[in-house]
Design a protein that fits this description.
The structure holds two protein chains of two kinds. Chain A has one domain. Chain A is about 75% helix and about 0% strand. Chain A is built from 23 helices and no strands. Chain A has helices spanning about 1-10, 15-35, 40-50, 55-70, 75-80, 90-100, 105-135, 140-160, 165-180, 205-220, 240-245, 250-265, 270-285, 295-310, 315-320, 325-335, 345-350, 350-380, 385-405, 410-425, 430-455, 460-465, 465-500. In chain A, helix 7 packs antiparallel against helix 18 (about 350-380) and helix 10 (about 205-220) packs antiparallel against helix 21 (about 430-455). The longest helix of chain A has about 35 residues, at about 465-500. Chain A is globular and about 70 Å long. By secondary structure, chain B is mainly alpha-helical. Chain B folds into two domains: about 5-75; about 85-150, no CATH class. Chain B is flat. The two termini of chain B are about 45 Å apart. Classes of the chains: A mainly alpha, B mainly alpha. Chains A and B meet through helix 9, helix 10, helix 19, helix 20 and helix 21 of A and helix 1, helix 2, helix 3, helix 4 and helix 5 of B.
């Protein structure tokens, strides 16, 4: 235990790790603070760079950039009422109302402070939850993996805040994309249409870059430029945060816990955590009438929640290779590339690397406080950069980055194609996150499914016979039927309310 | 580019059916009941069912609820409807990426990248005062990071970089 901790310290105290972590933090803060550039996009564009780093440094950049970007999405949310990342959308109105009341410092300070606290709570949950879950996971067979993966996919469709049918369709499209190539149970070329480039299948990372970055540039072509930021002088940013912590310690804890739970659920991530926590905060508040008028309580809870989910989203990723959210989906890709294949044995064989990941999360969240304050102070200048100067650079990064992944031009074609697919899906209400998880998990789902079918000799019954498999199956099927139940409940309730109003 | 649900749904039905058929005709693994054909078959059927449900408007009520969530000012303000070709502007970024695929080897990275930056920047409303220096400098910066530091073999083409 102590030795692994010392080893972990040795792993992260190299110049390469320190420099790449610092650089990735600044990068994450800047990208997250620019409206329209999300934390997922920041992480996806970082992947080609991680190719050329050592494993620990590569993970350090992902950890630092994603944590910072989730926080700094709060900055334009509070100052412009435009959330920098979807995870900040839940409380952008509230934060902006506080800015109008002249409390911008308090709102942004709460963003920094409770993000850092939430992040550290998330790491603690990762440290506590992961090892015992790894013990359980060791006894999992393909049946359990199949249901677990299915549960993850179903969660992704549940949280999509769109039509569940469209979300499931998006998931199927992702799984279909994952079918392409010769990496299938029979080893035959499948859906390759005779193109050699398709034999290796569609790489998840170029697809992600296309869906999250190119589609965003496409959207920018049709939407008006966000308004410039009014220049302002900030007072002390951290003043009053300790008072808030004492006043709202219960809300903070609840936000942390909700964030951790949502993060651990495969498929649900930071934006969902923020929405749920903000709604919960309003529901259980002693003064719900103040919400929406610039009240800090919801900010505390949602800010604590979305950052907590970032770290705990790594639990299913590290244990099962099932991403907790889209950022974790990218992280899994990097883990595989760096020889840290996700799985329960990771915690015994590569224990020092695991401790290094924990330590890096803690350092990133502590680093967030000074860097975050500095970022808030210079945000006025960064947000001056016009979109017409940023988007071209993003385009270049997309082209070069996707080329760098396999050193072939087909990556660039993939990025362009998925840009179009992502854009069309998003404009028509098909959630892209569900598709992305489908692409990332497709091979694994198929392997677990087909291996299970072969083992059971084509029978369905063994899928439910093992106790854990049965529980997971019940949860997955429940998640599938949940929208149906909500729909029926609404249908039943509607005539009642209609009858009540006519009476 | 917002299409009616009946069109996207029908497209999914066709796609699902094609995937199921494509899976069905795959050769099975000798001596095994399940092979590479099962998964596409299941997914194709599922996708076709989803497509049908979308055509018939099932689950639509969940979407309307989302539209009730007040959007932020900046996002809600849609651009005034201009000519029909205005929507095609969205296709510029993927078109430029394809241009990169075909032109980079011949023209070299610097020239291709400069063209992409200039066009994207102007399309987003930049004046030449911003777009030109950006197009002249940013390819070198990107080349420095990816080509020099990360050693990605970027094509030199007509204009090799000084390093």
């Amino acid at each position: 235990m102590l030795k692994t901790l010392v080893d972990a310290f040795a792993l992260i105290s190299t110049w390469e790790v320190i420099i790449s972590m610092f650089a990735a933090s600044v990068y994450g803060l800047v990208i997250g603070s620019l409206p329209g550039l999300s934390a997922t996009m920041a992480t996806a564009l970082l992947v080609p760079v991680t190719f050329y780093l050592s494993p620990i440094a590569a993970i350090a950049t992902i950890v630092a950039a994603s944590s910072m970007a989730i926080f700094s999405g709060d900055i334009p949310g509070a100052l412009l009422r435009i959330p920098g990342t979807p995870a900040s959308a839940a409380y952008a109105d509230e934060a902006y109302a506080m800015t109008r009341k002249g409390q911008a410092e308090l709102a942004l300070g709460a963003g920094v402070w409770f993000s850092a606290v939430g992040g550290i709570a998330g790491v603690l949950s990762l440290m506590i939850l992961a090892p015992p879950l790894a013990e359980i996971a060791l006894s999992f067979s393909t049946f359990e993996y199949f249901w677990l993966a299915l549960l993850g996919l179903m969660c992704a469709t549940l949280v999509a805040r769109s039509s569940p049918v469209k979300a499931i369709a998006g998931m199927f499209i992702g799984l279909l994309v994952a079918c392409i190539g010769i990496e299938n149970p029979g080893g035959v070329p499948r859906f390759t249409f005779g193109l050699t480039d398709l034999f290796g299948g569609i790489e998840p990372i170029p697809a992600l870059v296309g869906v999250f970055a190119v589609a965003q540039v496409m959207r920018a072509m049709l939407t008006p430029e966000p308004p410039p930021l009014p220049r302002r002088k900030f007072g002390s940013i951290m003043a009053g945060q300790w008072r808030l912590t004492k006043l709202y310690h219960w809300q903070m804890t609840r936000g942390n816990i909700v964030g951790i739970i949502i993060g651990v659920l495969p498929g649900a991530g930071a934006d969902m955590a923020a929405w749920v926590s903000y709604a919960m905060s309003k529901r259980f508040s002693k003064e719900p009438e103040k919400f929406g008028t610039g009240h800090v309580e919801g900010l505390v809870e949602a800010g604590a929640s979305n950052n907590a989910s970032i770290a705990s989203g790594w639990v299913p990723s590290l244990l099962f290779g099932i991403p907790g959210d889209t950022i974790a989906a990218i992280a899994i890709g990097v883990l595989y590339m760096k020889g840290l294949n996700p799985g329960p044995t990771l915690f015994t064989e590569k224990a020092s690397s695991m401790y290094a990941i924990y330590l890096m999360f803690i350092i990133a969240n502590i680093l967030m406080i000074p860097l975050g304050i500095a970022m808030i102070r210079v945000a006025t200048y960064i947000l001056l950069a016009p979109r017409s100067a940023i988007m071209p650079i993003i385009m270049l990064c997309c082209a070069v980055g996707s080329f760098a992944i396999g050193n072939n031009m087909f990556g660039v074609v993939t990025v362009a194609a998925f840009g179009v697919i992502g854009y069309v899906m998003e404009t028509n209400g098909y959630p892209v996150a569900a598709m992305v998880l489908g692409i990332v998990m497709g091979t694994m789902v198929e392997q677990a499914f087909v291996t299970s079918l072969i083992k059971s000799d084509g029978s369905i019954l063994p899928f439910f016979e093992r106790p854990v498999a049965a529980i997971l199956a019940a949860m997955a099927i429940g998640a599938l039927l949940w929208p149906v139940m909500v729909w029926i409940w609404r249908k039943v309730k509607q005539p009642q309310t209609a009858a009540a109003t006519t009476r | 580019m917002r299409l009616p649900d009946s069109i996207t749904g029908s497209f999914l039905v066709v796609l699902g059916a094609a995937a199921a058929y494509g899976g069905y005709i795959l050769p099975p693994v000798p001596g095994q009941p399940v092979g590479p054909n099962v998964f596409p078959l299941v997914i194709g059927c599922g996708l076709a069912l989803c497509g049908l449900a979308i055509v018939f408007g099932i689950g639509h009520s969940f979407e309307e609820e989302e539209e009730l969530v007040p959007f932020e000012d900046g996002q809600a303000a849609a651009p005034p409807p201009q000519s029909k070709l205005y929507g095609l502007r969205a296709l510029l970024p993927p078109a430029l990426l394809l241009f990169y695929v075909f032109a980079a080897d011949r023209l070299g990275f610097i020239i291709t990248a400069a063209i992409i930056v200039y066009l994207t920047s102007t399309a987003l409303g930049a004046k030449w005062k911003l777009a030109l220096p950006l197009a002249a400098l940013s390819p070198f910066a990107i080349h420095l990071i990816f080509g020099k530091l990360l050693r990605v073999p970027l094509p030199a083409g007509l204009l090799p970089t000084p390093w």
